[in-house]
Amino acid sequence: MKSDVNRADRPFRVEVECDEGVADVRAEIYRMDPNGERIATVLRDTLDQLYDGRRTGRWELSQLFKAEKESVGPLVEINLQREFRFEDGIRTDYKIAGVEVDCKYSVSFGDWQLLPEAVNRVALVVHADEKSAKWCAGLIPVKPEYVNNGIGMINALTLSGCGVRRIEWLWGGFQKLAPNLFIELDQVIRERILGARATRGEKHGQARVNELFRQVHGRIIRRAELATVAQQDDFMKRARDNGGARTHLRPEGILILGHQRKEVEIAQALGLPIPRLGEFVAARVVPERPGRSDHVAAIAGSRWIVAGPDDPYGVAAPVVPR
Predict the structure, then answer these.
(1) Each residue of 300-319: pLDDT tens digit?
(2) Which residues form a coiled coil (predicted)?
């Protein structure tokens, strides 16, 4: 079987030997996850789980302790099994479509370490990179000629160059990973958000959330990102009305939308990304002016558009009806 992988954004261009077992595992994974979205979600959620931003304020791998970094792979493997309910393998991690499958995750592409028990079985290799916001997963029949000699006390095997080239990349190679806001942000803006201090009796967490929605517009804010900024148990409340960011930022013309049906309709009308459960998107809005925008939202009896850099400040955002 040939895998047409573009080298510009794919691991390799290869011809893959599709041994018996690999095809069955691939077919079962495609049946359960036709476009890879479930694996992508597991990877994003696992990284966020490790950062534990609500308690620690951390947001990247370099901030983790050594033991935590070493737990990334095992935790990915556990969370994949929880998501897909793979059977336990006898000598490997999983049994998929009746085939013994060893799962290995590596922070660095190509550095998958396999136990000797994986030889002559199928391996599912997974990798994610936060900086490029991409991930990939592939299958390989672990033949002796595809691995290097064992290393370390556990005699771990690594894939040789030949072995890496024999990986069959699922879904064609690298796929998009939900981006990490804090890596994307300019350092000055990131420090302004995370360093915001309370005034007028606010909590510091509320001040940071206010600054988050003041600075980040037109981009989905994920639940874990909001928790990292707020660092409070009631972090979702910090984005909403009744004293949250919606209340604080409305006089500045900033509209904060969540996953409720009316808010989703407004986001669509304004041409903004669509929030899902637990997500938000913010934008500064102004009353419609003819010819200014194709994206117009009717809110509380008035028509609004996303503000441009030349639009005046000081126009309060509307209250979204419940």
Answers:
(1) 899 999 999 989 888 999 99
(2) none
Name 128's bridge partners. 135
Distance CA 38, CA 81 (A): 12
- Count CB neighbours of 53 within 10 A: 22
Options 3.40.50.300, 3.40.50.150, 2.40.10.120, 3.40.600.10; CATH of 2-176? 3.40.600.10
Residue with tokens 């939308």: 257
Q: Where are the alpha helices (DSSP H) in 93-244?
A: 161-165, 181-184, 187-194, 204-215, 223-230
Tokens at residue 311, please? 């639009």
Query: Mind listing the pLDDT tens digit for each residue in 181-224?
Result: 999 999 999 999 999 988 776 678 999 999 999 999 999 999 99
- Segment 268-273 long-range contacts (CB within 8 Å, at least 24 positions apart): 269/295, 269/296, 269/297, 269/298, 270/295, 270/296, 270/297, 270/304, 270/305, 270/306, 271/295, 271/306, 272/218, 272/306, 273/218, 273/219, 273/220
Give the pTM. 0.86
Separation CA 108–CA 245 (nearest Å): 38
Query: Where exactly are the structural domains of the chain?
Result: 2-176, 185-306
